[in-house]
Design goal:
three-stranded antiparallel β-sheet, 236 residues, alpha/beta, 10 helices, 8 strands, globular
């Protein structure tokens, strides 16, 4: 019965949902943005939404390890407003695009994202944003938990050393003071936490197309994804 319901929702969409999951530094954001432009789809970065929660919680002085975490987060999540202006992310009317790139915000986001109360809120927002299709949505659990009925699912991966180097270069261009060793250690911890959490762990969906971007440039990865999406679209 569940499979029939998923198939029915998928068939009702005129354009597909494209899910791109994978670890930090695999190139998800760059590839997803380029793919969305190539397809004429909207783009949604769900990781930025979790970072927005981390910013809001941090501003309220909430420690992710506190015993009463759900109680403290409930009021924030009940009123939180997260939106996108192009590639800028807006939290409660404030542009936080330059804030969420900080490594400590990424670490906080990973910790808050393991909490059921946070994931439930973000799940609802993400499903509402992408339900109509015509969207490229990237994150950690899009193809497994948010849209298990997505028409096209990708899991983008890369060698850990390459991912660390990419992330370090990205932070350097944005003026974030860090070192390659620090970035590599942070990514290793994020991988461990994201893959090991009980709720919606980072892993490929059983029907995901796994793409290793270690030795491939953005254009070739996007071309492969675009071809796959167009094939599915023609078959609908």
């Amino acid at each position: 019965m569940l499979a029939l319901k998923r198939e029915s929702r998928s068939a009702a969409r005129e354009r597909p949902i494209v899910a791109i999951d994978g670890p930090v530094g695999a190139g998800k954001s760059t590839v997803a943005r380029a793919l969305a432009r190539a397809l004429g789809f909207s783009y949604l970065n769900t990781g930025a939404m979790y970072r927005a929660v981390a910013v809001a919680a941090g501003a309220a002085g909430i420690d992710p390890d506190t015993v009463k975490i759900d109680e403290q987060l409930r009021a924030i999540l009940a009123t939180i407003q997260i939106s996108f202006d192009g590639e800028r992310i807006i939290l409660n009317g404030r542009d936080i695009s330059d804030v969420i790139i900080e490594p400590e915000i990424g670490d906080l986001a990973s910790r808050f994202s393991a909490l059921p109360i946070v994931r439930e809120k973000m799940r609802d927002l993400q499903r509402a944003s992408g339900a109509g299709g015509g969207v490229v949505m990237e994150g950690r659990d899009i193809g497994t938990a948010i849209f298990p009925d997505a028409e096209v699912k990708f899991f983008l991966m890369a060698d850990a050393r390459v991912r660390a180097a990419r992330r370090y270069a990205e932070l350097a261009t944005k003026g974030v003071a860090t070192t390659l060793d620090e970035v590599a250690a942070q990514l290793s911890e994020r991988d461990r936490r994201d893959a090991g959490r009980t709720l919606a762990p980072l892993k490929p969906a059983v029907d995901a197309i796994v793409i290793d971007s270690t030795a491939r440039d953005v254009a070739t990865v996007v071309d492969e994804m675009k071809t796959r999406v167009e094939t599915v679209s023609r078959a609908k």
